[in-house]
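Subject: DUF4190 domain-containing protein

B.,
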Amino acid sequence: MSNDTPEPYPSYPEQPGLPASPQQGLPAPSPQQQGFPQVPPTNTLAIVSLVSAFAVSLVAVITGHLALGQIARRGERGRGLAIAGLVLGYVGLASTTVIVVLSIVFAAAFGHLFVNLAQRGGVGGPVASATSEPDASQGVLPSGTLGAAHFDDGYLSVGTGSTIVDEYIDPMCPYCGQFEATNGALLASRVDGGSITLRIHALTFLDQASQGTYYSTRASAALTCVATVSPDATLDYLAALFANQPEENSQGLTDGQLAALAPTGTDISDCIARGEYQLWSEVNTDDALNGPIPGAEIDSIQGTPTVLIDGAQYPGGLTDSREFEAFLDSGSGSGSGQATTQGTSGA
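Prediction pasted inline below.
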């Protein structure tokens, strides 16, 4: 029977010297060819984030966050690079913030220092004398008594009466000016009449309110200059200081203007120029603020004006002359107001 399908060639083992069988010469069937798996690319923004972290921290932070979002969506590589860029970027931002804050603080501090130096003549030579700083370079406090100044006790004393009146004032204190305008003449007349001893404590609480000119210290020292060279003119000069009192937060009077207020025949220009008694005025202020106050019913001075009559504090109105005179005569006031003002306190 005929068969159109050819029979396969017989297969036989390969033998040396014989040709291979036809099937042995055909190539073996191969499976469908497959491509190599592709490696995902590295995210570009992740690289930018890491590189920019060493130069511009803000760019590193922004591109780092963008890179993480793209990596999550696209399956790209570079997550570690993005995280490293973010960490370095945030560290850089924190460091920059600290540096900027410290720079502002130091700039403000040194700027204030340079302004004060310039005002006091420390930079570029001397300027107006109204800006001369209290001279503590001498470092030695005066002692004993000179004229009306009782240096060891910390006050200027006028009069010889048996009633002791202690008046704590600051030359720039507006309430002190009101008290002087109302009661200054009364106190002066009692001093002249021999009934009281008036002890003036000129303090420096309001140096901070004179734009760096230290007016309270300079004016207190100028009053002491007059008290040492012309004791009888002490109250006149005190009245002149308050009659020409500058406003708070102004530069105050210049040294020349303070010298010009001295009574005729009393020259305190050199005393002011040398800065004499400035340190003494500041020490008196510290002592009054910290206490104790010898022989007084109060422990320390908390504001100006503070007036003590034989150690008892006057509690009445500053501008009520009758009330103050009654307290001065009887040792007790009838008013309920406070003569001290916390606004002028150095506490």
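The two ends are 134 Å apart (CA to CA).

T.
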